[in-house]
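User: These chains co-purify. Model them together.
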Amino acid sequence: MTAIISATGLSKAYRGRKALDNVSFSVAAGRIVGLIGRNGAGKTTALKAILGLTAFQGELRVLGKDPATERDELMREVSFIADTAVLPKWLRVRNALDYMQGVHPNFVRARAEEFLRTTEIRMDSRVRELSKGMVTQLHLALVLAIRARLLVLDEPTLGLDLLYRRKFYDTLLNDYMDEERTILVTTHQVEEIENLLTDVLFIEQGHIVLDTPVEDIGQRYSQVLVHPDQLAAARALKPFHERSLFGRTLLFFENQPAAQLEALGEVGTPTIADLFVARMQQTQQEAA
Amino acid sequence: MKVWPTLIRRELWENRSLWIAPTAVAALIIGAAALSLGSINFNAIPVATRAPNFSRGMLPASVWGIATVIMLVGAIAVMSYLLDCLYAERRDRSILFWKSLPVSDGYTVLAKFALGLVIAPLFVYLLAVATHLVCSAMLLLRQGGFEFLSRTWGNGIWFSIQGDLLGRLVLSLIWYAPLAAYLMLASVLSRRATMLTAVLPPLVLALAERLVLDTTYLGAFLLHRLAPAGLSDVTEPQLWLGLPVAAALLFLVVRLRRYRDDT
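Assistant: Joint model of the two components:
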């Protein structure tokens, strides 16, 4: 298993405030990793460090290269969509393809054109004439046509309607992803990409608070839907989080044998969104 | 893969005024010439009443006159381009797109500098030459002024005037290289008004010198660098000393663009 990204002791402070505090993680090839955190948790800072867009302390290798010193070579094999609307308004679709073809050694123009034909985007339109959803489609078309090994997405669907968001991720899975490609994605809308992710990294106040493959979540965490009359018994097993749901209570447990929990109610695997909320509240309680 | 031509084309897509403004002025000159040539008939001026150097003086005057107007507009377009080129990409956040591609900061900055200081001025020069040719051709057609033209164009004088103009242009590009690099520095540093970022620091420094030391060396030096001084003398050391200064400023610009959108 080769590490596409490996970070060791990554730190970054902005005017004394620590955006990343001694963070270590690694991302393996062929994975779709969700970097999940609240606003200001350090997501974008981590991505910027990976993309060589910010100075940092610590050890960081991306595709075996140092993003601080080998950025230009690195960007041949890394593609990046920052949150929507970074394509300049004056750019024509045709010229965007011309530009990519001119500067990017791994850009396959025919592939971008093929994808654009499935959309309503016309070649002679300018970005300013396109809707927000179409701009994202255009950006996706450019990125899909790059033979890149790592794709970094920072809130790629922010502000898009449901239809475009769904299409975006469908295209990503069907037309982009294969065993040699890796995606690192940050988003607020965890629910939407739950089924897509193979790994999650929760980040809070500059720290990684959870780093796990999605398939391991079921073994490690469980949720039980408990009737009020069994609530006291369930709480005795020390859930790390609970929330009420239609008159019953959903309790979350870590490393609790399933047999014990089944006696209390309906057992299931928590969603990533629930796990995220639980984790965040836990961190806040610990801090308090 | 044609990286340099692509980078230059990209600049021209965004900054169309670089070629549209001087071209529009050239078109205006041609239009004005077309109107006025109809009313003046040089051949009708009796040879005896012409000043001895009338026709000899006409040619350089027309070449320099046309070139001055077009180049002035070109210079304004270039200056506003250089001031804007590293600020606009941060204002519209497109820097995140440009930086997602394997184009180094060095390439980006050099392409912008080369367009502003070399390519655009040479285009403007060629435009001035073409405009003069068109005006001359109109004179020929309108007036059948072959006799007039052959006298003024004789002995390759037209070429020597244009060559002289080109030489002056090249010297002034060398002279103004540090200014061009400085404008880019203001552009990469500016957070809001690029013009203020460029003008305020030297102005404040010059005033401070006047107030604190009661001397005006800085102000005088800056005015000297802004004025087209030292353009006629190739042996002027300041002309050449400007080049390493421009290189140092460009190096600084490249370093600054690297983490510039990082807030």
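The mean pLDDT of chain A is 87.
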